[in-house]
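Exercise: predict the fold of this chain.
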Amino acid sequence: MSQRIPDATIRRLPAYLRWLVTCNLERVTSGILGQATGFSSEQIRKDLAYFGAFGTRGVGYEVAPLRREIMRILQLDHGIQAMVVGAGHLGTALVRYVDQAQQRDVKIVAVMDNNPRVIGTEVGSLVVQPIEAMENLIETLHVGMGVLTLPASAAVEIAERMANVGVHAFLNFAPVAICTGYPDVFVQHIDLTLEMQALSYFVRTRQPHPIS
């Protein structure tokens, strides 16, 4: 592909895939897919067009081939191994959620921490491992994605250590920029406090009687 795919398009593809995995139709239109996912039919057609012609005008898309193609685009057809660093409340909740959901495309294969009180304890089906073993486990388990649920003071160093041994994508819950000197590393920042502060705008603008 010669043209750059917008990040927003990539982030919408998993929403399309989630519905396609559960639907029991053999063929869908962009309108049906839009109603199911909350995006416009025009947006869906534009997103999919970046990757080729999957549908037929007036007929729609065959579900099974489209599902396989989106999985291939997202590189989920062979599965991605992820590592969670930080076995606090957020990290353990994420591990248990993914474990219970029995995700097969993105699988958490290790959880790390430096707290002696949690090292060796079980989180879901995993045992918390010491940070000292991080690089070795990344290489042994072929980890490609890092999930950081640790304090900002440690996130920068940990992320760089992980990037240096082959981790090229991060889901970062720490309130700090990471891997700023690594152009080949993609970071998705999730700051729950900032998200709630942004949502407060919509609360106030939609209240008939603003709270004083």
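Check your answer against the key: The chain has a mean pLDDT of 89.
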